[in-house]
User: What shape does this take?
Amino acid sequence: MIVCSTLVPLQAVVFALVALGAPLVVLTRDPLRQALVNGIYGVTLVLLFVVLEAPDPALSMLVVSGIAYPLVILAAVARVRGERRRPEETKDE
Amino acid sequence: MSRRVRLALLTPALLGLGGLFAWAIAGLPEFGDYRGPYGYVLNQIVVPLRHSTNVVMGTTFDVRGLDTMGEEFILYAAVVGVTLLLRDESGAGRVERRTRRARSDTVRLLGVLMIGVGLLVGLWLVAFGYITPGGGFPGGVVLAGAIVVLYLVGSHRDYGPFRNEHALDPFEGLGAGGYVITGLAALALGLQFLTNLFGYGKAGTLLSAGSIGILNAASGIAVTVAMLLLFAEFLETYVVPLEPEDVGS
Assistant: This one.
């Protein structure tokens, strides 16, 4: 592999972003917020794959962290929230 | 178990794991030091032999096409699993439901623009998968994502066709089965399974790479429909029955 030397500082910065982002995802307690933070963390991973000159994994990471995973998480969050909220709402109607 | 006992168990476990982890990391090759030879060989042979300018796709759909077939069926099995687990036997899900559309015109306009742009980007990713980075998997998820935006900015009725399992299932079969049939076609001609049929065409154009284009399109369809089926199941089980405006209608 030919390492492009101009990319090395960029790679270092993005590695640092990824290292910062991962604990942020773990430390976010609220699941809805966690889904959003995880999406942003996914974007840093996309950047990492781009600066490591791997466009195909970057695209796959983008669609998984940006579309597929949040859909599943948000559906589950909506389910949990809906159950918790439901008794009050049925009273209102 | 008390906190002290837990800590007493955790500390040696963490130390052991940490030690093994550090040992493993220390033995890794230097960053950026790829030792090959697989990658070097592929970079040399895929473009001249298969005319697929995206070496990744030439590898996944030709050099190790059988592995990719397995991967496609992992997704298929996942969708089947979710469908079986979440299947609503009571029939309550079949009631026609209506909900309010997104109220803000701005949100709806942006959403409609996103649907158009998303579909275009998804089709482009699938179509040019064996020429530039992309392919059936990312393209398929983008296509499904664009369609799901219709659910977010439209109504359940607008989204209806895309959550109808009976309409979606044949396409899932076409996508997953198309891959296998392409492989079997080679067998029928007396060649090895998944041998690249058709001419390789001119590298860098849509008419190149032989069977890779067909396998790529088949997996694009399979992934798009698999995502839609997954979302339809989640919607049916989790979201829709709990929206209060649906309950009374």
About this structure: The interface with chain A takes residues 32-34, 39, 54, 56-57, 125, 133-135, 137-138, 141-142, 144-145, 148, 227, 230-231, 234-235, 237-239, 242-244, 247-248 of chain B (CB under 8 Å). The CA atoms of residues 89 and 201 of chain B lie 51 Å apart. The two ends of chain B are 50 Å apart (CA to CA).
